[in-house]
Specification:
With 233 residues, this protein is of the alpha/beta class. It has a single domain, classed as Aldolase class I (TIM Barrel, Alpha-Beta Barrel). Helices cover 43% and strands 16% of the residues. The chain contains 10 helices and 8 strands. The protein has an 8-stranded parallel beta barrel, surrounded by 6 helices. α3 packs parallel to α4 and α6 runs parallel beside α7. The longest helix is centred in the N-terminal third of the chain and has 17 residues. The chain is globular and about 45 Å long. The chain binds cytidine-5'-monophosphate.
């Protein structure tokens, strides 16, 4: 088990490229995130192969359905032996409680976290849904709801970590994408933070994709980021 705070996003179309990248990294230095594209293409077999290499996995499938269906999906995901799974907080309290209950009955329960508001959604997008909260108010409301429902944490932008850390306490996991080391390209991310700033702001784990996966030397990029954050309390 690693104590690294880095989760490398394996945003690849299939097993071959994902495994090739994983071979260039080390389970001592990071965990890996498998999302909808890769899991849909490669399935549980790939998860087994990655876990056999020693990696702990965040299965990022963002379940959102009626409570019973979400709970059963979470249970099935938990039984794959992954380290972390997630649901959409917008599924509501009953759905999150059912998911938490289902997961906690597993022999080796994964961490269960919630996506609050997708960072792709701005004020106009949420107003169009009939929601009158600002995006910030909504993120805080949904994070508190996830915590009250017994979840272990939320995915949030690095910009939100300070506020959520204040309201949700030190034990609640804050998992933050949109991380860019100073020398990295922004790619399609706009509101980014450096790894050390995100950890200082209260992030528990950093989800990092292209700055590592597209680096000339992914292992060196990972080592460099681990180095930048290792002494921050
Ligand atoms: O390559 P990059 O570091 O931008 O990858 C970030 C990862 O985090 C991707 O897998 C992306 O889907 C995910 N993510 C994100 N923003 C969110 C939620 C997830 O970038 N709000």
């Amino acid at each position: 088990m690693t104590d690294s705070k880095i989760i490398v996003a394996l945003d690849f179309p299939g097993a071959a490229s994902a495994l090739a990248l994983a071979h260039r990294l080390s389970p001592e230095l990071c965990r890996l995130k498998v999302g909808k594209e890769l899991f849909t293409a490669a399935g549980p077999v790939l998860l087994e192969q990655l876990m056999k290499q020693g990696f702990e996995l965040f299965l990022d499938l963002k379940f959102h359905d009626i409570p019973n269906t979400t709970a059963q999906a979470c249970k099935a995901a938990a039984n794959l032996g992954v380290w972390m799974i997630n649901v959409h907080a917008l599924g509501g309290r009953k759905m999150m409680e059912a998911a938490q209950h289902a997961v906690s009955s597993c022999t080796c329960p994964p961490k269960l976290i919630a996506v609050t508001l997708l960072t792709s959604m701005n004020q106009d997008d949420i107003s169009e849904l009939g929601i009158t909260d600002s995006p910030g108010e909504m993120v805080l409301r949904l994070a508190k709801l996830a915590q009250e429902s017994g979840l272990d944490g939320v995915v949030c932008s690095a910009m939100e970590t300070q506020l959520l850390r204040k309201y949700c306490g030190s034990k609640f996991s804050l998992v933050t994408p949109g991380i860019r080391p100073l020398e990295s390209s922004l790619d399609d991310q706009s509101r980014v933070m450096t790894p050390d700033a995100a950890i200082k702001a209260g992030a528990s784990y950093l989800v990092i994709g292209r700055p590592i996966t597209k680096a000339m030397d992914p292992l060196q990029a990972l080592l460099d980021i681990n180095q930048q954050i290792q002494n921050i309390k």
